[in-house]
Amino acid sequence: MYKKTKKIFIVITMIFSLAGCNSVNQKIKVAVIVKSTTSQFFKSVFSGANAASKEYNLELAFDGPENEEDYASQIEMMEKAIKDKVDAIVLSAIDYRKLVVSVENAIEAGIEVVIIDSDVDSKKIHTRISTNNYEAGKMAGDTVLKLGSNVYNVGIVNFDVNTANGQERERGLRSVLSKDERVLSLETINVQSDIPSSIQATKDILLKYPDINVIVTFNEWTTLGVGYAIEQLGYEDKVSVIGFDNNIVSIKMLETEVVDALIVQNPFAIGYLGVEQAYYLSRKQGGEERIYTKTVVINKENMFEKGNQKIVFPFN
């Protein structure tokens, strides 16, 4: 009788032990939902996220709308991730307020949410990872003031007013330029985050304010749109351009002096750290509340310096 009982006990113990092993070995599921999957910026975010998923042995899904205005599709992607019972969501939000309900629904469902790049208006988020957008805007302002002009009339081509990172960048820019007596005017136009809208907006603001001699713009698509507009108008020697982000075309614009400087972020690090923090939170191993990644000013003079090569040319 004793031997039979002992055998039953051993079998039960083994079953619980195997169940525990399966629980421990089960891959953590992380959904990365970004503002767009077509820009070089978010392709680099994916590269970083993918590297982290391999290092931590995670199951990774990567998704985003075709354009950076389609918050409705982002909400649907959030709902799908909740329904799929992922362990964590890494989100770059198109709209600061419209994504709040989806984010808080995920948190209430027990899903860890890490915000990268562009924020949402929720106090329930544990971890945020991004460029310091206000400081990046100040960097753009300092870059304007180093152009060497005696007078600055500045046009700002910004993207959607409901996207947090663009508004923070503009605040930083204005905080610098508004204190300098050489800056006579600051005019803003907001556009959809795509090339055609940015081309038209650039032409519109230059027509309305013909004294503009500098344009500052805040992401990959608007930088390309502004650059194309300057080329089409033949204003390369009339209007300086300070843009954000980098891809093959904007780097070429930097070389040909259509664009004077680019504020370049580190999207690979943003993606990597977003997934890494999602892993730590899912494993209940803590997680940092705020991480800022590095931003640098790239111009024609420093773009080929050894330390800037991987930042400027991350392309396959």
Can you give a write-up of this model?
- By secondary structure, the chain is of the alpha/beta class.
- It folds into 2 domains: 9-131 and 266-293, Response regulator (Rossmann fold); 133-265 and 302-307, Response regulator (Rossmann fold).
- 46% of the residues lie in helices and 19% in strands.
- The chain contains 11 helices and 12 strands.
- The protein has helices spanning 2-25, 40-55, 71-83, 100-108, 133-145, 164-177, 195-208, 220-233, 248-255, 267-282, 309-312, and strands at 29-33, 59-63, 88-91, 112-116, 127-131, 152-158, 183-190, 214-217, 240-244, 261-264, 290-293, 296-299.
- The strands form 2 sheets. A 6-stranded parallel sheet has the order 2-1-3-4-5-11, sandwiched between helices.
- β3, α4 (100-108) and β4 (112-116) form a beta-alpha-beta unit.
- α7 (195-208) packs across α8.
- It is elongated.
- The termini are far apart.
- Residues 1-24 have low confidence and may be disordered.
Q: Topology, please?
A:
Layout: H1 2-25, E1 29-33, H2 40-55, E2 59-63, H3 71-83, E3 88-91, H4 100-108, E4 112-116, E5 127-131, H5 133-145, E6 152-158, H6 164-177, E7 183-190, H7 195-208, E8 214-217, H8 220-233, E9 240-244, H9 248-255, E10 261-264, H10 267-282, E11 290-293, E12 296-299, H11 309-312
Parallel strand pairs: 1-2, 1-3, 3-4, 4-5, 5-11, 6-7, 6-8, 8-9, 9-10
Antiparallel strand pairs: 10-12
Helix pairs in contact: 2-10, 3-4, 5-6, 7-8
